[in-house]
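G., the chain you wanted modeled:
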Amino acid sequence: MTIKEHVIKEIVMRVIKSQDYRIEIVNLINAEFLQFAIDFFKKIVTAKLNAQTITIEWYKQAFMSRNLSSDEIAINSGLNKKTISNMYRSATKQIVIEASNEHFETLYQSIQTLVENEQDVDLVLTIKFQGVSVDLNVSESLIVINTLAVKRAALRGGLWSTAGKRAEKYIMLSLCHMYKVAPKYYNAEHFIKNKSLLVDREIDFYLNNGIKDFKCEVKLMGQGNPESADAIIARDSDVFIADTLSQQNKDQCDQLGVEWIACRDKNGYKKFGEILTRLGIPNEEYKGDLNIDLPIILDSLSVK
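Predicted structure as tokens:
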């Protein structure tokens, strides 16, 4: 799933400037969902014009065809690919097709039963496109509504996770540029799992003072999230950077001897310079203007 370059830049700038970054992801979810809804409605109109009713077989042929991608088939059946992967421990196209067909038949029967039991409810969804208008009955409308709900849930889960991971590296790189840390004192190379090791966990970023490497963990999470302690323990982190940390989170870091930064604290980013100095990493105190410097830094990093 593609995260637009400007969104990553906005997330990084907001985090470092002690601002909430979540609105950027919410806006992206809204934009992608609305575009999906419009495209889906267009497909419904086109398909509906060639059929009198949306029967289970018609819908499966039009929206769960083998010619579609695995993601499209899953979403159109009322599932998402990640759910199928968790259920069957695999997400090959054949498994997606089988799981989607099985689920959609169950969904369709549930809708039919509901419609029969709730005969007082009348729902008509009218879609107009390029002068053509089609009406969907109760069953048809519920199928469409369910598909849209599943798609939004899938977008929400995927974008929150992907945006956070994409932004983490650039938060660290931006801080290093702000404090004039030379490239030889940090490592942001892409993690490659060492299969020879029984346990090899991904490390977001390394700082080093020319003698020792310091593992850095970045988490864009909410206040009081217990995942913070789990993450730094699992990865044996030396430096922990988060959007928000509760006092308990901070106390846990102190007890574990882990340097921490809570970016949402007032001027939270300034602790980075103090940490660099304590770790013996050459740096220069940052005295610039974040509004001016961050866009320039992020452009130079070629955010993608």
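Residues 190-202 have pLDDT under 50 and may be disordered.

Shout if anything looks off.
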